Amino acid sequence: MDPVQVNLGGVPETLLWNLYQRATEARQDHPVLRDPKAVALVEAIDYPFAARFGSGELGQWQALRAATFDREVRRFLGTHPDGTVVALGEGLETQFWRVDNGRVHWLTVDLPETVEVRTRLLGTATGRQSVAAVSALDPAWMDQVDPRRGVLVTAQGLLMYLQPAEVHGLVADLAQRFPGAELVLDGVPPWFSQRTQAGQMRTKQGYVTPPMPWALDAAERRRLLAIPGVDEVRDLVPPRGRGPLHGWVAPVVNRSARVRALGLTGLPILRLRFAAA
């Protein structure tokens, strides 16, 4: 098969960065995340990954983030095997193939240009998979969700690119439309957000991280908990990784409530639970 050309810029281009990092880790002898589909995608895409993003030195970090989301999806499916997982801003994430239990219903929600790329590379969604080619902020996608079997919404690598008011509005809408459901999301600490908005986060190859206006610290956790319908906001700790940094330092840092309160952790991931009707 001829390589597939992908031309994306701005925030949509970050889906290629995420994919490349996961695939780089998946190629390791003892990866923290097995993701053969990500490796196959990178090999199928005509894109200068290394020239644009470097050697994939953040691969393990990205894979541990994905593994944390996988763990939450599996936990949800353990009690709701026929439930619906809604993946907001899914990009070229291959989570469905890593966690599929043969019964889950999966809805991908993403921008039309991203859905077009995903469809070309991963095929047309059929059966238990469906797609909504709209912004995560467009409530139209919610009409495609059947809440009777349970709902888990994921927002991996998405919300940090939104304005704080947009994030709060989305959470409020989810709490109202899907009582009893859960939302798993990640963010960035304030210092990282500030650097991206100043254009200071760039690779040696010249790739500049898009601005990330929304950040997570103790104050933002309190604001999320204050949104009507949000019953609980819980920090999630990524699994232990490989090597001194991800195997020893990061686990200690990520488990420190004090560090999380100061917004210093590099991998803030939360689970929000919505009040039942």
UniProtKB/TrEMBL annotation:
Gene Ontology MF annotations: methyltransferase activity
Keyword Methyltransferase in annotation: yes
GO BP terms in the entry: methylation
PANTHER family per record: S-ADENOSYL-L-METHIONINE-DEPENDENT METHYLTRANSFERASE YKTD-RELATED (PTHR43619), S-ADENOSYL-L-METHIONINE-DEPENDENT METHYLTRANSFERASES SUPERFAMILY PROTEIN (PTHR43619:SF2)
Keyword field: Methyltransferase, Transferase
Keyword Methyltransferase set for record: yes
Organism: Oryzihumus leptocrescens
Taxonomic lineage: Bacteria, Bacillati, Actinomycetota, Actinomycetes, Micrococcales
Pfam families linked: LCM (PF04072)
Highest taxon listed in the record's lineage: Bacteria
Protein name per the record: Leucine carboxyl methyltransferase
